Amino acid sequence: xxxxxxxxxxxxxxxxxxxxxxxGVTLSAPWRGGVAILGRNGAGKTTLMKAIMGxxxxxxxxxxxxxxxxxxxxxxxRVRAGFGYVPQDHPVFARLTIRDNLAVGALTNKDSRAxxxxxxxxxxxxxxLDQIAGTLSGGERKMLAIGRALLSxxxxxxxxxxTEGVWIGVIEEITDRLILLAKEIAVVIVEQHLDLALxxxxxxxxxxxxxxxxxxxxDEVRNDPxxxxxxxx
Length: 233
Ligand SMILES: Nc1ncnc2c1ncn2[C@@H]1O[C@H](COP(=O)(O)OP(=O)(O)OP(=O)(O)O)[C@@H](O)[C@H]1O
What we know:
Number of domains: 1
CATH architecture: 3-Layer(aba) Sandwich
Bound molecules: adenosine-5'-triphosphate
Order of helices and strands: EEEHEEHEHHHHEHEHEEHH
Largest sheet: 6 strands, mixed
């Protein structure tokens, strides 16, 4: 395995039924560090996350993790292979408490300290373990969703807009945690907040109408004069 290609996506086509959304997407992530996926609304970012997780089939191309081709594997097996996913919508069980949300997430993990590590990462969750998740603030809910995804101890964590609907003060807190996390595992982040995404990420890929239009280091992409055109509505 090339260290830079721990997560390796090649020539991926995917979509919904006959409607193709992704066209020949090729991107990679190293085994540690952050990778940002940018692009305007509808560019295909969520579709890409779903295709990487196996929630949508690849029509063409491949998804590999640590040189293992997972393109044909169902989502649960991808989770076992090391993928973690924090989807944009409905990321927690709204009727369960924080404690029970974490207990469900921990079912597949024999390490009893896994929940403690999540509570160390997000102390706010530990202060309200018996609160029903549906009554949490947007930020707390996102923290719980990230914490839950981490309980399967993924080696690559995909996050789809982890700061959407989150108050600015809490955005900083979540971002700081993701920066730390990216020192340990691969973090792939879809984010509307460009500055935040590029603080977490060392590399960025910009999608435009389902194709990779721009890629480079965070600084290269931030300074590329074409970036605004690809992000403009
Ligand atoms: N379930 C679906 N069925 C059919 N088309 C869909 C479905 N979900 C998304 N699409 C279409 O796929 C395209 C890409 O959508 P996607 O949600 O991947 O974009 P995005 O970049 O994540 O946008 P956003 O920033 O708004 O979340 C859009 O044209 C969208 O209308």
